[in-house]
Design brief:
single chain, alpha+beta, two-stranded antiparallel ribbon, 4 helices
Length: 142
């Protein structure tokens, strides 16, 4: 099972203020434990929303709104994508994150192809997607 661990933005991350060097080092050590466990697929921090945009489709029209966005609690500052055996294991890994006081993360399970109704995707599509995953989605290793 794949899970995304979403790091919520803060006023500091939105202002472009980097975390203290001790926290960056602790996150590096945490990432190393995920790598050593063979479960880390991706881990990335995101730039402030002032460097982003929101793209919306409404009534057949596409609109682009440049950041920054005001509601910090709705923004994402980074994420991990991990592959674990179940939700309980994902939660255990979340509890090991080197949090700053008041920091929040969100855990979300990733949809797999078998989660969708059988008539919504073709067998060829599922096979092509699986082949791509096997070729590209490998846990990060040393």
């Amino acid at each position: 099972m794949r899970f995304m661990i979403i790091v919520k933005a803060s006023p500091e991350s939105e202002a472009g203020i980097m975390p203290p060097s001790e926290l960056i080092a602790a996150m590096g050590r945490y990432n190393e434990t995920l790598i050593d466990a063979g479960i880390l697929l991706v881990a990335e921090g995101l730039q402030a929303s002032s460097k982003g945009a929101r793209i919306k489709s409404e009534a057949g029209k596409i609109t682009v709104t440049d950041g920054p966005f005001t509601e910090t609690k709705e923004l994402i500052a980074g994420f991990w994508l991990v592959q674990v055996k179940d939700r309980a294991e994902a939660l255990e890994w979340c509890k090991r994150i080197p949090f700053e006081e008041g920091q929040e993360v969100e855990l979300r399970q990733v949809f797999e192809s078998f989660d969708f109704p059988a008539d919504s995707v073709t067998r060829e599509h599922l096979e092509a997607e699986q082949a791509w995953r096997e070729a590209n989605e490998k846990p990060i290793t040393r």
